[in-house]
Amino acid sequence: MEIANRVILLLLLSASIGVAQNSSRGGAQEVHVGVILDLGSLVGKIAITSISLALEDFYAAHQNYSTKLVLHIRDSMSDDVGAAAQALDLLENYKVETIIGPEKSSQAIFISDLGTQSHVPIISFTATSPTLSPSSLPYFVRATLNDSAQVSCIASTINAYGWRKAVPIYEDTEYGRGIIPYLVDVLQEHNVHVPYRSVIPPSATSDQITKELYKLMTMQTRVYIVHMSSVLASTLFIKAKEVGMMEKGYVWIITDGVTNLIDSLHPSVVESMNGALGIHFYVPKSTELNNFNTRWNMRYQIDNPTDPPSKLSIFGLWSYDTIWAVAQAAEKVGLSNATFRKPISKQKSTDLGALGTSSNGPEFLKEILQSKFIGLSGRFDLSDRQLTVSTFQIINIIGKGWREIGFWTAQNGLSQRLNKSQSATIYSSLLPDLNPVIWPGESIDIPRGFEVPASGKKLRVGVRSSGYQQFIKVEKDEITGATKATGLSVDVFEEAVKILPYAVPYEYVLFGSPEDTSSGSYDDFVYQVNLKVYDIVIGDITIRYNRTFYADFTVPYTESGIAMVVPVRDSVNKNTWIFLKPLTPGMWLGSIVFFIYTGVVVLSLEFLGNNKNVRGPIPRQLGIMIFFPLFEEKEIMERFLSRIVMIVWLCFLLVVTSSYTANLTSMLTVQQLQPTVNDIQELLKSGEIVGYHRGSYVKGLLEELGFGRSKIKPYDTPDDFHNALSRGSGNGGIAALVHEVPYIKLFLAKHCEAYTMVGPIYKAAGFGYALAKGNPLLGDISKAMLNVTGGDTIIQIEKKWMGYQNDCQNVGPITGSSSLTFANFRGLFILTGAASTSSILIALIIYAYKKQHRSTKVMQNDNKQVGNNRTDGENNEPQDGNQGAVTEESVQFGAGSEQVCDSNPHISPATCNDSADIHRGEPRTVL
């Protein structure tokens, strides 16, 4: 019955297309074109309706053309052999100049070989498999996109939501298999692992599909990429909904082979896809497209009266534009004298070698490849033998329809809006640049992308004993045989697992033997996750660059770095001259200089003030100069400026002496410990022997630094380290222990008083856990560990296993009391120096001013005396020369100044009073 319906449909289509062709182009040159499609498929029905409308529209717009296309439509019946037979018939009996189709990629491979042999272009708008290469099939033209064009969009979407594993589900056909190599490569570039590939035969029954879905449910990965025909995909999603795989936590991404037909699928199928994401070819909206869509719906109902209404898809638009491209190329070539040359052969006509070759085929192909125009599907350009990568629309299937959540372009990556000007975006799993999505189960929370199935195996956690059992200690239960692990590393892991938002059952699996801490290196231990022996390994495992090649690491949970442990010694030699050590030589020198300077300033100030106590022989003045800075004697100092200088100096002296006393007390009573070695280069130069923990990568580091093998000794336990360090390098021990910082802190917690840590001398990433490459647990465990190490939990864990090792004063750099330097008291030196200098300058200015004032008075008195002598001469009263020569200066410094002032009326009373005061030695306040 179905075959009969196809035959009737084919006759009706041929009749309608033939009538349209004859009525519009009765006198034009005919160009025979073959069309091979599966007329019973949804794509075939949509394409045939678009092709008939394309012929009508093209020749209605180009009535003056001298050529017309004559279509010969054939039904492949969805069979590869049938499609090949139809192609042979068209080439042999109808001498077609080109063949449009076939629909499937598997059919296109053989038919394209026929086109190459006969020089007839084969144009397919549905064969999307990347295995159809134009380089090997020179007469094959893909009027659609290569499936590999959408893999970057898929990978970007997965990366945007932070998923790290994905399982492709594809049909076992040329179309299904062709995309997988390209998809896997691009996913790996985005650090997305493909742990499994689900292959569905095109003839699979519902039970077979259900069985495969149950198998997927037992795996951790919950992100699926579906690439198959719409018929097989419909069955897959209906069964997925039945088994509960369209619920919360699952992620489904559908390629464009299905989503390009989403509007034409049955509503029940669309409902079963609710929450899925789809890659959809974006078609720009236009008035022409809207008008054509209306006409197409009407014609489709006429062509398929018994079928339910369908909607125009991108395949219908590509078939429409393909007819326009072929019709334009036929008009340019002409094809009026087209011939098929038969090869000389005696074989039967059914032999492939008997196929003729088209004389105009190469030129016809050239014109088709030069077709460039804006069609209903957008930019239609076949210059690369296929349509170029354009814009993909990312959709979210909801209810019986879908909604847009974003776009993808090769230039801008993912974006919410198509015309958003931006460079390629770097996405995070927390904030993808897309509109909100309603996921399966009507959830708005972004799925994690994986789950630990309840029926699946437990997480295999690899453990091994450590030389430091505070980090991890492994024991084997003699009765049950179960492995038990304890320690800081174990507690951090267990606390992190508790924080995970889902249950993760796990079991500890022993590496080596519980007692042997040196059974295999840590590199071998970590490599077990790459061999799939363990899912994760925990313990005191250092995150190293070379280990990242075969394992992924969580964030570190300890401090990082490599340092040295060396013995300490008292840095202060308490000898006879220890009283000099509180001050540096510079401080001593500065204090002495300012001591002398202050004494000179005070002596000068008193001398300028005519203080008789500072006059006398030089030894006396030196004694006074030393006396002034040490003792404040108001009876000796008469000037106000001198007392200011002394107050500032005594403040300076008080601070310095107090600091000196405190520092000297500290040196005499507190032990000042310093490391015996401050730098690893000292060990290299002196040829000392150093130690390391047996099995640690530190050995290789020491060799890289230049230590010979004879200068490196391995040890196993902290007690071994203590014994070797206490003996020293010269007595069969070691001068220093080179170890990782977490171990050193643990060692110093027990041996705090005798050793100290120097460094770190080398940077390391700290301790972490190793997982297999691509393990989806990595991100969640790392986040949980950050929660543990960032709060009070890690403090309590460290106290439990390590005690209060941070109380050790020797952890980290040692700092003791040091000598006081000149820089420590720079401010005081500046203050006392400024006070002394300014005071002496003020005193000099006052002294100069008084001296100038005195000289002026003497000159005035001399002039007055001369005037009096002249008056006496005129009055003939001779005066004694010595009496007339008495001046104020002689009065001031003469021994009998009081009698002179009383007997000489020419001396001013003020001068006599000043001189009398000086003579009597009565004190006067002066600056």
UniProtKB/TrEMBL annotation:
<feature type="compositionally biased region" description="Polar residues">
    <location>
        <begin position="900"/>
        <end position="914"/>
    </location>
</feature>
<keyword id="KW-0812">Transmembrane</keyword>
<feature type="binding site">
    <location>
        <position position="740"/>
    </location>
    <ligand>
        <name>L-glutamate</name>
    </ligand>
</feature>
<dbReference type="Pfam" id="PF00060">
    <property type="entry name" value="Lig_chan"/>
</dbReference>
<keyword id="KW-0325">Glycoprotein</keyword>
<dbReference type="InterPro" id="IPR044440">
    <property type="entry name" value="GABAb_receptor_plant_PBP1"/>
</dbReference>
<feature type="transmembrane region" description="Helical">
    <location>
        <begin position="587"/>
        <end position="608"/>
    </location>
</feature>
<feature type="signal peptide">
    <location>
        <begin position="1"/>
        <end position="20"/>
    </location>
</feature>
<comment type="similarity">
    <text>Belongs to the glutamate-gated ion channel (TC 1.A.10.1) family.</text>
</comment>
<feature type="region of interest" description="Disordered">
    <location>
        <begin position="857"/>
        <end position="927"/>
    </location>
</feature>
<dbReference type="GO" id="GO:0034220">
    <property type="term" value="P:monoatomic ion transmembrane transport"/>
</dbReference>
<keyword id="KW-0406">Ion transport</keyword>
<comment type="function">
    <text>Glutamate-gated receptor that probably acts as a non-selective cation channel. May be involved in light-signal transduction and calcium homeostasis via the regulation of calcium influx into cells.</text>
</comment>
<keyword id="KW-1003">Cell membrane</keyword>
<protein>
    <recommendedName>
        <fullName>Glutamate receptor</fullName>
    </recommendedName>
</protein>
<feature type="binding site">
    <location>
        <position position="542"/>
    </location>
    <ligand>
        <name>L-glutamate</name>
    </ligand>
</feature>
<keyword id="KW-0472">Membrane</keyword>
<dbReference type="InterPro" id="IPR017103">
    <property type="entry name" value="Iontropic_Glu_rcpt_pln"/>
</dbReference>
<dbReference type="InterPro" id="IPR015683">
    <property type="entry name" value="Ionotropic_Glu_rcpt"/>
</dbReference>
<keyword id="KW-0732">Signal</keyword>
<keyword id="KW-0675">Receptor</keyword>
<feature type="compositionally biased region" description="Basic and acidic residues">
    <location>
        <begin position="916"/>
        <end position="927"/>
    </location>
</feature>
<dbReference type="Pfam" id="PF01094">
    <property type="entry name" value="ANF_receptor"/>
</dbReference>
<feature type="disulfide bond">
    <location>
        <begin position="752"/>
        <end position="808"/>
    </location>
</feature>
<keyword id="KW-1071">Ligand-gated ion channel</keyword>
<feature type="transmembrane region" description="Helical">
    <location>
        <begin position="640"/>
        <end position="660"/>
    </location>
</feature>
<keyword id="KW-0813">Transport</keyword>
<feature type="compositionally biased region" description="Polar residues">
    <location>
        <begin position="857"/>
        <end position="885"/>
    </location>
</feature>
<feature type="domain" description="Ionotropic glutamate receptor C-terminal">
    <location>
        <begin position="458"/>
        <end position="804"/>
    </location>
</feature>
<keyword id="KW-0407">Ion channel</keyword>
<keyword id="KW-1015">Disulfide bond</keyword>
<dbReference type="GO" id="GO:0005886">
    <property type="term" value="C:plasma membrane"/>
</dbReference>
<keyword id="KW-1133">Transmembrane helix</keyword>
<feature type="transmembrane region" description="Helical">
    <location>
        <begin position="828"/>
        <end position="849"/>
    </location>
</feature>
<dbReference type="InterPro" id="IPR001828">
    <property type="entry name" value="ANF_lig-bd_rcpt"/>
</dbReference>
<dbReference type="InterPro" id="IPR001320">
    <property type="entry name" value="Iontro_rcpt_C"/>
</dbReference>
<comment type="function">
    <text>Glutamate-gated receptor that probably acts as non-selective cation channel.</text>
</comment>
<feature type="binding site">
    <location>
        <position position="547"/>
    </location>
    <ligand>
        <name>L-glutamate</name>
    </ligand>
</feature>
<comment type="subunit">
    <text>May form heteromers.</text>
</comment>
<dbReference type="InterPro" id="IPR001508">
    <property type="entry name" value="Iono_Glu_rcpt_met"/>
</dbReference>
<dbReference type="InterPro" id="IPR028082">
    <property type="entry name" value="Peripla_BP_I"/>
</dbReference>
<feature type="site" description="Crucial to convey clamshell closure to channel opening">
    <location>
        <position position="677"/>
    </location>
</feature>
